[in-house]
Amino acid sequence: MNRCVKFLASLIATCATGLAMAQVPPSANPAAAASAPAPATTVAGSSANAGGQAHALTAEDLSSFLDGLVPFALQRGDVAGGVVAVVKDGKLIFARGYGHDDLKKGTVPSPATTLFRIGSTSKLFAWTAVMQLVQAGKLDLDRDINDYLDFRIPPFQGKPITLRNLMTHTPGFEDTARDLITTDGKPVNLEHYLKTHLPARIYAPGELVAYSNYGCGLAGYIVQRVSGQDFDDYIEQHIFKPLDMQHSTFRQPLPAAMSPMMAASYKTASDGKVQPFEIVDPAPAGAMSTTALDMTHFMIAQLQGGSYDGNQILTPATVALMHTPQRTDAPGLNGYALGFYQENRNGQTIIGHAGDTDYFHTDLHLMLDADVGVFMSFNSAGNEGGAEVIRAAIFDAFLDRYFPVAAPQLPTAATAKADAARVAGWYLASRRNDSALRMLYALTQTKVSALPDGTILTAAFMHPSGAPMHWREVGPLKYRQVDGPYHLEFVAAANGDIRYWATDSLPPVMIFQAVTGLHALGSIELWGTLSLLFLLATLLSWLCGWLVRRHYRRPLGLDAAQRRSRLLSRLGVLALFVDLVGWLALLVAASADQEILLHGALTPWLYVQYVLGVLGLLGAVAVVVHAVRSWMAPRRGRWVLAGETLLALAAIYLAWLIVAFGMVSFSVRY
């Protein structure tokens, strides 16, 4: 079960930073879980130099630093290879490949010519295209996007979606992963995808952040419609060409001339099996293939007022607007600019974007105050945490080496113990799927625990050492990581109830909403487990009783109507048991192979489960009816009546569970 929860966590978090859902998942989202996949394993920690003397950011020092760090990290994470590039003050100061882009050939990736898939980092190019058209007066950030589309997205709670909502991931869409990544090599059609994969809405526009690949696809389609050019053509002409990005493309499959340049991708380096080229749909959300040097051109343009080598893709005013914070879901924590998310740390103003497919993992960071850009990409998922841990740890170490800052010594709040008890409970990520996977996402709830010393524990968020993160209250509902740089903040409603919490220990792509009562995972675990055990005991006693009666040739002491009622009740128990075990089997299957979600293979099994859910509900009725008849029948023993009553209560609870968590929704939007 722990492995299953970790998978769905990646579906909503890992994939959150990238395409995949796990990406429970989460994941996930992604492209892959990815990108989900929440429920989020993250990285915290700092080098021994944190708060010490800053090293000079030079090619020589970077070479010494990264050459010592990256090869070991690749080996430790079971990752085949990667590239790292750094720019400063409008110039490239470091670019190097590490490990292998092809394990069989033993070749080292070239920053200039080896292509990497950058997953959701691709979104920055879609957002840049939007800002070009805003700058030209052809798009309005606050206008209903239906004005730019040839199909209609209904308003939700009376509010239309705007481009600003899309660029801050607040359109209110639920997360979806189906058909997000395929490996069949077939070209994709953006218009067709958007018109056939419209997600359900679970929030009003602008209400809460919930990362959306579909939303970026919409933005790319708007660029296509308003410009009159195919999205790929537009990006090539208006961004790649002026930035001299000669080895970059959104086209899928790759153009013939570029195909030999693509780095091989792997699950792990030790496995060594080359994985197929991933087709991402919608393409604007994560389809780009590029080199490290091409990405340095983009970083320089973003840092230098929209200009690279004298070619202007955006005006300085538009770049400044694009980098300006637009919203945060917790005051003082990182939020969103336009397309970029904030990563402020070590006293630096930082924006960036990560990206994940199933096998490639990327990070881009722009340090606006220091005029520094960092890009890295890796061609393997690696062992548990692998490439994701590597990329976060490298940037953490980079910041602590070149921009060290002493952690503030803030006293623990006097309300620590009281507030720890107040915030303890279960929380569910805002980035999730409610239509088809509500039950599976419910199992990804993360628990906040209050400790006796007034600190709190978030078990799903891990330190690189493998220990869960601990947090200490330093202000009203504001927490700082114990022995770490990150923050966590709870947001309360007007009546004082906790609504959600957010943290800067992962990108601000979602928040974690409080879950109470029977919907909380603790309640589901308790009552669901007890109910399932009672069903199992009933089925075993039914079988054993039949065998005993058969052996001793003793008939059941019930009349025909009672026997028929009892039979229907036991068949109802069987239907309930099979349905719930079936959902657990789906969870295990998804954790073992997230492609079940991404490639749509889950669809027929969902329909099977929905039918079983209906049978389970009918079975619950039969169980309750038999319990009532047992009380009305003469000469039934007290233990029999107690057993039938408890069985009826278990059936009622499980019937509620089936309805409340959409296990009969017959939806295959996931």
From TrEMBL:
Alphabetic keyword roster: Hydrolase, Membrane, Signal, Transmembrane, Transmembrane helix
Membrane-spanning segments: 526-548, 568-592, 604-625, 646-668
Extent of the signal sequence: 1-22
SUPFAM superfamilies registered for this protein in UniProt: beta-lactamase/transpeptidase-like (SSF56601)
Top-rank lineage group of the source organism: Bacteria
Assigned EC number: 3.-.-.-
GO molecular function, a single term: hydrolase activity
Location of the Beta-lactamase-related domain: 75-396
Class of enzymatic activity (EC top level): hydrolase
Coiled-coil positions: none
InterPro entries reported for this sequence: AmpC-like, Beta-lactam-related, Beta-lactam/transpept-like
Pfam families: Beta-lactamase
Protein name: Serine hydrolase domain-containing protein
